[in-house]
């Protein structure tokens, strides 16, 4: 089992390797969406970029094409941004949501 620690919510959960970060957060009732995006989001398809998170500790695979395209402008301000819906958990992670 791997651990995911969500900084802003001060919660740690355990997940199986290969679990999708967005799905793990939702299953454990950890909010990764802000404002209206709690309702209006792309449901994990990588289209809306409203599930942006910052990985502050741990290793994840490099960004895929979906992330590169949707985070282009945001990456100039914060190069550690990722889309939770595109991350498969393969290491213990510390995640900062609502960035």
Automatic annotation (TrEMBL):
Which Gene3D superfamilies does the record match to this protein?
3.10.20.30
Q: What's the superkingdom here?
A: Bacteria
In this chain the 2Fe-2S ferredoxin-type domain maps to 1-99
Quote one Gene Ontology molecular function term. 2 iron, 2 sulfur cluster binding
Task: Tell me the cofactors it needs.
Answer: [2Fe-2S] cluster
KW Metal-binding (keyword) present: yes
List keywords of the entry alphabetically. 2Fe-2S, Iron, Iron-sulfur, Metal-binding
* CDD domains, per database record: fer2
InterPro entries per UniProt: 2Fe-2S_ferredoxin-like_sf, 2Fe-2S_ferredoxin-type, Adrenodoxin-like, Beta-grasp_dom_sf
Key word Iron present: yes
Q: Report the family membership.
A: Belongs to the adrenodoxin/putidaredoxin family.
What name does the UniProt record give this protein?
Iron-sulfur cluster-binding protein
